[in-house]
Structures are given as structure tokens and as C-alpha cells.
Design brief:
alpha+beta; Aminopeptidase; 8-stranded mixed sheet; 3-stranded antiparallel sheet; 7 helices; globular
Length: 250
């Protein structure tokens, strides 16, 4: 678990501003207050004082951001209690699932769907718009975000979109972050509602997982948002390995 948390500490700061506040790595995404893009990660075994928690809270308040943390409970088992005592509230518990090469199960691509890497700025725009819609967010994707996605592709991040062969609609998208010391994260698996229930999410996940394993990753991990999608990931070889918690202070 410590290795996976170390991976997150390495990759989360990409494209973000960071500072160390006591036993916390605070990350801030320029240009967006989105809570999922602005959060702190504790050091292994973190047992902060009340003053250190207050300092973390103040660091986010100064930036008009929600004070927030995401971390794997096994690496800092005493932290949640301390945060709750300081007024933080649990947003959710998210299972951590991992897949080693020997456990991976390939999944066929559904009929009428093709998987491909986005090739143009418009491909990236359409893929991210689809992901946003699937997550209940704005479909608008600006030029700056498109350029960031393209830059991350050059830096080793992998993307795949699922396209309706007949209509050309981008029905789904997903990504795998860069591989660091044999570990990588599968993320952003999102399917438009009219295309759900056809096996597209499983095919996307299997495709990305196979790619990273073939590129040398020995551990692929993900954090499913709910039990239903967790069952989809289990079909392609992911198994429960721990828990991630999200806490914030309103």
C-alpha cells in the first residue's frame, strides 16, 4: 500500500502547485477550484498536531479552496480520527483495487464499437467532453485543457476512446497515468448513459490494463466510485486491496 501511496504523491503534483504543510503534501490546480483536483496527501504514518491540521486548513482557505484530503487508510491509520476531531467530515470511502499481469482478463470490444487512441485536438476535446457528461459535469472543454491532455500524452499518459462505428459518437473514454517504478493508475473510465450496460467500460479497462502491463507495469490500480462499477473492474481481473478515504472541511 505504501508503494501505491508513494505513486500518488509522485503523480498528483503533475501540473499543480504544491507545498509541504507539516506531514501533508498540499496540491493546488491552477485555474480550477474543483475539489477532486485540489487536495492534500499525508505522509506515511502521519499523526499531525492540531496546529498542523489548522495550518493545512488555512493553506486551502487562503486560496479560496475547500480544505480536503485523499489518501489510503492503511498508510496513515490514525489520521482520520484526528481530522474528524478537528472538524473534518468523511465524504466517502472508496475501495482500492489492483491487478497484476497474471490476474488480468481480456474483455472483447462490443459489436459496433471501436477503441482507438485520440489523434487530434478534436478527438481529445470530444473524449474529455464525453467523460465530463458521464460524470455530470459541463461538456465544455477549453483549448488549454486540450493542450494539457496532449502534453500528458507526450509525458507517458495513455488515453483510449470508444467510438460508435455507425455514428462516430465518442461513447466513452479512459486513461492510464504514467508508469512509475512499475505502478500505474487506471482512471477516468466514463461511458455515456445510452451506451451503458454493453460492456464498453470493461473493454476500455482491459485494453488500458493490457497496455500498461505490456509496457512494464507490475501493478495497475484504480478506485471505483461505486459497487456497480467495481463489479465491472472485477470482471477484468481487479481485486480489492484496500481503501481510500476522502475528507473535507466545509
Amino acid at each position: 500500500m505504501s508503494a501505491i501511496q508513494a505513486y500518488v504523491r509522485t503523480t498528483a503534483p503533475r501540473g499543480r502547485e504544491t507545498e509541504q504543510v507539516g506531514p501533508f503534501l498540499a496540491t493546488y490546480s491552477p485555474g480550477t477550484p474543483h475539489p477532486m483536483l485540489n487536495y492534500a496527501i499525508p505522509d506515511d504514518g502521519a499523526q499531525p498536531t492540531a496546529a498542523e491540521i489548522d495550518a493545512l486548513t488555512a493553506a486551502y482557505r487562503r486560496r479560496d479552496l475547500l480544505p480536503r484530503l485523499e489518501y489510503f487508510t492503511d498508510v496513515a491509520p490514525d489520521l482520520e480520527k484526528l481530522l474528524v476531531e478537528a472538524g473534518y467530515e468523511l465524504e466517502r470511502r472508496v475501495p482500492l483495487m489492483t491487478c497484476a499481469p497474471a490476474a488480468r482478463v481480456d474483455e472483447p470490444v462490443p459489436a459496433g464499437i471501436r477503441l482507438r487512441v485520440p489523434e487530434s485536438a478534436e478527438d481529445f476535446r470530444r473524449m474529455r467532453s464525453t467523460q465530463n457528461i458521464a460524470y455530470g459535469e459541463s461538456p465544455e472543454v477549453g483549448d488549454e485543457e486540450v493542450e494539457r491532455l496532449k502534453a500528458r500524452l507526450s509525458a507517458g499518459q495513455r488515453y483510449v476512446l470508444a467510438e460508435d462505428v455507425e455514428t462516430g459518437t465518442v461513447a466513452a473514454g479512459g486513461l492510464a497515468l504514467e508508469i512509475v517504478e512499475g505502478t500505474t493508475e487506471i482512471a477516468g473510465i466514463a461511458v455515456l448513459e445510452p451506451y451503458r450496460g454493453r460492456g464498453i467500460a470493461a473493454a476500455l479497462t482491459a485494453h488500458l490494463t493490457r497496455e500498461v502491463h505490456e509496457a512494464g507495469a507490475h501493478t495497475a490500480f484504480l478506485t471505483p466510485g461505486d459497487l456497480g462499477i467495481g463489479n465491472v473492474y472485477a470482471r477484468v481481473g481487479f481485486r480489492p486491496a484496500g481503501e481510500c478515504v476522502h475528507l473535507s472541511l466545509s
